[in-house]
Amino acid sequence: MPETLTGVTSPSTTQRNSLLLNLPVEIQFEIIELLQRDWQASLVQTHPLKSLRLTCRQLEALCNPVFATFISINPLSRRALELRKELAPKFAEYLKVVECHISGQEGKVELFMESVLTTILERTVHLRKITLHYASTDTRAHRQLLSAISRLNALEDVRIRELDHQGYPPRYETVQSTFHHRLLNHILDYHSLRLRVLLVSGSTPMHESIFLKLRDTAGQLRRLLISRCLTIEARGAFADPQKWACAGRLEYLFIKQCAIHSATIARQIGAGVFGPLREFYIVGCWENSGDSLESAVTVWTIPPLKRLRVDQLNDLEMSRLRSIHAKKVYMRMVWSSRPLSIGAFKGSTTFPGAAELHVEKDWEDKDFKELKRSCAVRGLTNIKRDLDSLYD
């Protein structure tokens, strides 16, 4: 086995080659495959890594995808798992990115895979980004894993994704018993003051207590991406005029298929509860029961957004969101007909301040000309037909 490079952050070329060349043959083959696929290299020498002069950046490029492959839900032999656990102390200190699948099962293989992951995380002193795939039905405690995550002192980018995308998510009243809830709570308890990027995607509802903790403690967030996990139970908390802790630092907000009223979203952005956003991207929420009771008027208190992306939104949602001020607007599959889109842009109250508009490539010439005429009435002349359709 190769020497242990303890405490070394910039190993010499000799040390790097020694570390890689002395890996078991199975691992060398995995690395070769990654090189062939990602770098489009053709390496068929007897010792394909011998002549490589690897920089630290290239070493990370090798380590990260290999370890992401190591920890997966795919069945692996006991020997393969033991090999990965044995290598963890030698490679983990170089890792800055880790992606892993966390099984909700309690079989011997699943438990051993989790122990391998825990061993890796306990040694990743420079880890900055972690992507965790979870099962919506998982109610296990995963205490050792959470303990390892709590000690990731360089962590600033967390992405939590649901594995199964099941049609029947856990009921809101049972959410606090899920691993999803404990994981989010743990991340915010230990890393909220350092987080710059947070993505939460899945049908498991985000509990109101987690939402409020996110709002009130994650003061360094630059990018926030939330998909499907804000249910009707979060509407009251989302509508609260309390400013977010990240206001003034948050630059990018993404909301997809959440049950928050579009009027509420537009009002909160305009009121500046997220601070002066640079970009907002929304994909159809489809949960607008009672939305007609809310005012469509938005008092705008922040500079116009640099970019606004609206995707798969119905007429009611667009009637609320059109009050958002933005310089560049990208719209795809919005409104129920082209004439509605064309008519909306005759007035300056549709996306005030817009200087550039992007629509799908499949707009017919006749409709596109009408849209350009409509926009010209308000002085908007930079219209581009350059967006791919949803099914391209």
Cross-sheet strand order for the largest sheet: 1-2-3-4-5-6-7-8-9-10-11
Helix content: 25-40%
* Beta-strand content estimate: 15-25%
Whole-angstrom Rg:
24 Å
Span from first to last CA? 49 Å
Number of helices: 13
Describe the largest sheet. 11 strands, parallel
| Class per helix and strand makeup | alpha/beta
Please, what is the oligomeric state? single chain
Helices and strands, in order, run as HHHHEHEHEHEHEHEHEEHEHEHE
Catalogue the unreliable spans: 1-17, 34-54, 68-75
Q: Quick one: how many beta strands?
A: 11
What labels describe this entry?
392 residues; alpha/beta; 11-stranded parallel sheet; 35% helix; disordered N terminus
Note down, in words, how this protein is organized.
The protein has 392 residues and is of the alpha/beta class. Helices cover 35% and strands 17% of the residues. It is built from 13 helices and 11 strands. The protein has helices spanning 13-21, 25-38, 56-70, 78-91, 108-121, 143-150, 179-191, 208-217, 235-239, 262-271, 315-321, 338-344, 365-376, and strands at 97-101, 129-134, 157-162, 197-201, 223-227, 252-256, 279-283, 305-313, 326-334, 356-360, 383-387. It has an 11-stranded parallel sheet with strand order 1-2-3-4-5-6-7-8-9-10-11. α4 (78-91) packs parallel to α5 and α10 packs parallel to α11 (315-321). The longest helix is centred in the first third of the chain and has 15 residues, at 56-70. It starts with 12 loop residues before the first helix and ends in a 5-residue tail after the last strand. Residues 1-17, 34-54 and 68-75 have low confidence and may be disordered.
